[in-house]
UniProtKB/TrEMBL annotation:
Natural source organism: Georgenia halophila
Reaction equations catalysed: 2-deoxy-D-ribose 5-phosphate = D-glyceraldehyde 3-phosphate + acetaldehyde
Protein's name according to its UniProt entry: Deoxyribose-phosphate aldolase
PANTHER family membership: DEOXYRIBOSE-PHOSPHATE ALDOLASE
Keyword Lyase: yes
SUPFAM superfamilies: Aldolase (SSF51569)
Predominant place of localization: cytoplasm
Uppermost EC category: lyase
Keyword Kinase appears in the UniProt entry: no
Amino acid sequence: MTSQDLMEAAGRALGTPVTAAAVAGIVDHTLLKPEATAEQVDALVADARELGAYSVCISPSMLPLRNANGIKVAAVCGFPSGAHHAEVKAAEAAGCVGDGVDEIDMVVNLALATTGRYRAVEAEIAAVREAATTPVVLKVIIESAALTDEQIVGVCRAAEAAGADFVKTSTGFHPAGGASIHAVELMAETVGRRLGVKASGGIRTTGTALEMIAAGATRLGLSGTRAVVEDLPT
C-alpha cells in the first residue's frame, strides 16, 4: 500500500480527511512508566492540550488530576499483569472513579484467557463495570500478542457481554509484544461497531498509526504522540 493509499484508507476509517488534529483527536496520550513523576504528568497534560489529544492515560497513583482542564482522564486498572483478584480490580476502579476519571483501562487475567475460561473473564470485567458505571468508559486490555486468534475472539466476546465500551490490544509492557494489524482487524471484526477498538503498544510512527486506524482502531494509545502527528497535514 502506498502512502497515499494508506492516507485514504485511514481517512475512510476516520470518516474525515487525515490531519494532525483528526489523528490526535483519537489519541490517549500516555505515561505509564512506573518511575513517572507528578511533574512529568503535568507536562503530559500540557502536551496533550497543545496537540489536541483526546485524553491522557496515567497510573492511579497520579490521581486526582486537578489540571486536566477539558482533557479527559483515563487510568489503568490491574496494570500491567492483570493477575489480580477481580475484587482488587473493582476496588481500584472505584477509587479511580472517586478521583474523577472519565475512563478506565483494565487488564484481563491472562491465565483465564489462555485456558479458555471466558465466563470467568466476563465475570471479572463485569465486576469492574459495576464499580465504574456509565458514563465512565471501560476499556478492556486483552494483551492480544499473548493470545491465539481463538482466544482474542473469546475475550472480546466476554468483554462485550460484560458491558465494556472498548477492547484494547496491549499494555505495552508484555514481552510478547504490542499491537498488530492482524489483532486490530480481528478485534474490530469480532465487536463490529458495537464497541470501540483501541490499538496500543509499540505504535511509534505515523505510518503504523495510520495502519492501525485503517485496520479498525477507533482509539490509539501513544506515548510519542507528537512524533506520530507532527508530519501530518494541518
